[in-house]
Design goal:
This protein is of the alpha/beta class. The chain is built from 8 helices and 14 strands. The protein has a 7-stranded mixed β-sheet, with helices on both faces. Strands 1-4-5-6-7 form a 5-stranded parallel β-sheet, with helices on both faces. Helix 6 (about 220-235) links the parallel strand 11 (about 210-220) and strand 12. The two termini are about 25 Å apart. The structure holds ribose-5-phosphate. Ribose-5-phosphate binds near residues 197 and 218. Ribose-5-phosphate binds near residues 93, 169, 216, 217 and 218.
Length: about 300
């Protein structure tokens, strides 16, 4: 078993390697003057099970291309099998045609990764479970719910209600509420234009309650900031937010700072160390222990799902 780090999230890769007590594969990943990606593997990997770790986060196109070229380099170096570990799987939100004549980018990206030579995918909180079916190779989708539930229990908050920030998040919210034994509320969100969100209705009573909003992605921050305001308007006590993938585009961090959110807890699937350094409202939980444990189980052909029981 060997681990090759892409350049999108070196901090997480090093952390994973440390957990596995492995050295990262010696490689040279750089850009040509025109931006094209160059990958060279500097050690023998013939016959090895290789895990290439790369989130397809911003710059999504560059990071995706780098992942594909890494996989191609590994395949041509006679790796026995290649697992693409994609902690944050970008392009996942276009997983169906919501309006006519649009692409289904999640399917296209799945095809690209498979055709480049990956034998297996390991990801975290895929935007939609059915993306697993876009691949014709095995996909292990890890969940943050147990980690978030543990964090909530440790915080000793009482009078909690879990809130889905939109209808798409109900299943995820229910899974968390079951683990911490709380009720759920649901926000009816509309998107009047791309990147804009509006709260239409709130189903459930949040008055005097500590609200836990849970979502897979925070991008512009609009969904969560509006949701927090709507909950406060309905008499919520405090609003805490648990998000797996902190995309945090544009002015998202500033919006969160000025918002009604008491605390945002997220993970390191995307490297945001520069964006949120010393930010008191945002806490990061590392997923390196969970991801490395899943990688170990894949390498040893033991159960990954039992991680979540
Ligand atoms: C949408 O289906 C996702 O789960 C997130 O709610 C969404 O991507 C968040 O985007 P933003 O932060 O830009 O509102």
């Amino acid at each position: 078993m060997k681990v090759l780090a892409g350049t999108s999230n070196l901090k997480l890769c090093k952390n994973i390697a440390r957990q596995l007590r492995l050295k990262l594969v010696n490689s040279n990943i750089r850009r040509f003057a025109d931006g094209e990606v160059y990958v060279e593997i500097n050690e023998n990997i013939r016959g090895n099970s290789i895990f290439v770790v790369q989130s397809t986060s911003n710059p999504a196109n560059d990071n995706l291309m780098e992942l594909l070229i890494c996989i191609d380099a590994l395949r041509r170096s006679s790796a026995k099998n290649i697992t693409a570990v994609i902690p944050y799987f970008g392009y996942a939100r276009q997983d169906r045609k919501v309006v006519p004549r649009t692409a289904i980018s999640a399917k296209l990206v799945s095809n690209l990764i498979t055709n480049s030579g990956a034998n297996r995918i390991l990801s975290v909180d895929l935007h939609a479970g059915q993306i697993q079916g876009f691949f014709d190779i095995p996909v292990d989708n890890l969940f943050t719910t147990p980690i978030f539930a543990r964090h909530i229990k440790k915080s000793k908050l009482n009078n909690i209600i879990c809130v889905a920030p939109d209808v798409g998040g109900v299943e995820r919210t229910r899974a968390l509420s079951r683990r911490i034994n709380s009720n759920i509320a649901i926000i009816d969100k509309r998107r009047p234009a791309p990147g804009k969100s509006e709260v239409m209705n709130l189903v459930g009573n949040v008055k005097g309650k500590n609200c836990i909003i849970v979502d897979d992605i925070i991008d512009s921050g609009g969904t969560i900031v509006n949701a927090a305001k709507a909950l406060k308007d309905k008499g919520a006590k405090d609003v805490y937010v648990y998000i797996t993938h902190a995309v945090l585009s544009g002015s998202a961090v500033g919006k969160i700072e000025k918002s009604h959110i008491k605390k945002l807890i997220t993970t390191d699937t995307i490297d945001n160390s520069k964006k949120i350094a010393n930010n008191k409202k945002i806490e990061i939980i590392s997923l390196a222990p969970m991801i490395s444990e899943a990688m170990k189980r894949i390498a040893n052909s033991t159960s990954v799902s039992s991680l979540f029981k």
